[in-house]
Design a protein that fits this description.
Bound molecules: adenosine-5'-triphosphate, magnesium ion
Radius of gyration: 27 Å
CATH superfamily of the largest domain: Histidine kinase-like ATPase, C-terminal domain
CATH architecture of the largest domain: 2-Layer Sandwich
Largest sheet: 5 strands, mixed
Strand content: 5-15%
Number of strands: 7
Distance between the termini: 64 Å
Shape: globular
CATH topology of the largest domain: Heat Shock Protein 90
Number of domains: 2
Order of helices and strands: HHEHEHEHEEHHEE
Length: 304
């Protein structure tokens, strides 16, 4: 028989029936309590649903607000160009601005698209991307080459300490996604570094855990203290970051965390004692073996 009495009630605290003056039967009192619990649970779930709806609306408003800003700037520039009011010098400046605003719009749109994919697909297999064996040292050297020019005007250098990372075994992961993780981390390191400083990439193999870790450290604005993990929350941006780059989305580290979680790895952020900010990503060498389709041998000849 279905029983809803939790057995804790003694006959002394049992409520009396108000109408008849007699006592309510044990099952009646239990039923009453169960109904109250259900009502409370129902209210809690309704409130949660309202919160999720509110978050979704705010998120969509943010997305459109962020995308509209560069698009409006481009529209405004084109209006100026077609009105023929600008001299040659200004035309050049306006064209440069159109280029950088459209680059920003593409960056935002890519982040939003990737994020909605990651929100919808919680499992690696759902992403339908092949796993590949990735040499993290080579990947980091290639990414450092890509990002180095972005720091030239502020005198930044990117160094890859290839020992002991070079001797680490490859990890099994979805390559475009793992590249995205490290690109987001490196992009931040470049954006938030102080002039003339060094961005250092290092890492190594933990043979007991069968993992490979890669750290990217830079000196510049600090992480929030003591809640450094807030940087992985969707949309979080520190006041210093907003100040330096008002147009950021606050999605880069959230995306990185989601990708790493899907790969059953970890990502950590810390301010170290020397005043540097370090992001460390740890991935497994073989944990994902058999979890999704593996790319064929002839595909793995890609340079990156
Ligand atoms: N290397 C870093 N040094 C200091 N703070 C950092 C660093 N990397 C990330 N952060 C902090 O974490 C926040 C979140 O980073 P995230 O990459 O998600 O967003 P963003 O860089 O602000 O914008 P975008 O989504 O356009 O990349 C940043 O706004 C900044 O406050
Ligand atoms: Mg970023």
């Amino acid at each position: 028989m279905y029983s809803i009495n939790d057995g804790r009630e003694s006959s002394k605290d049992r409520p009396h029936n108000a109408e008849g003056g007699g006592s309510v039967s044990p099952n009646g009192a239990g039923l009453q309590q169960a109904l109250e619990r259900l009502q409370q649970e129902n209210t809690r779930l309704r409130q949660q649903l309202e919160l999720v709806k509110k978050e979704q609306t705010e998120y969509l408003q943010n997305v459109s607000h962020q995308l509209v800003a560069p698009l409006n700037a481009i529209k405004w520039h084109i209006e100026n160009l077609t009105a023929g009011r600008l001299n040659e010098d200004r035309i050049r400046k306006v064209l440069r601005s159109i280029y950088s605003q459209s680059t920003l719009a593409v960056h935002l749109a890519k982040n939003f698209a990737l994020m909605s994919n990651l929100e919808a697909d919680h499992a690696l297999s759902a992403l339908r991307e092949p796993l590949e064996t990735i040499d993290l040292c080579r990947l980091m050297v290639n990414l450092a080459d890509d990002f180095q020019p972005l720091g030239w005007d502020r005198g930044l250098s990117i160094t890859v300490a290839d020992y002991p990372l070079k001797s680490a075994p490859p990890v099994l992961a979805i390559k475009p996604l793992i590249s995205q993780v490290f690109s987001n981390v490196l992009e931040n390191a470049v954006k938030y570094s102080e002039k003339g400083s060094e961005i250092l990439i290092s890492g190594g193999h933990n043979s007991q855990e069968q993992t490979v870790s890669v750290s990217v450290s830079n000196r510049g604005i600090p992480l929030p203290v003591p809640e450094t993990n807030r940087v992985f929350d969707r949309g979080y941006r520190s006041p210093e970051a907003r100040n330096l780059y008002p147009a950021g989305t606050g999605f880069g580290m959230y995306i990185a965390r989601r990708i790493v979680e899907i790969h059953e790895g970890t990502i950590e952020a810390k301010n170290d004692k020397s005043g540097r900010v370090t992001f460390t990503v740890t991935l497994s060498v073989s944990k994902l073996e058999g979890k999704t389709r593996k790319r064929g041998a002839k595909d793995s000849t890609n340079r990156r």
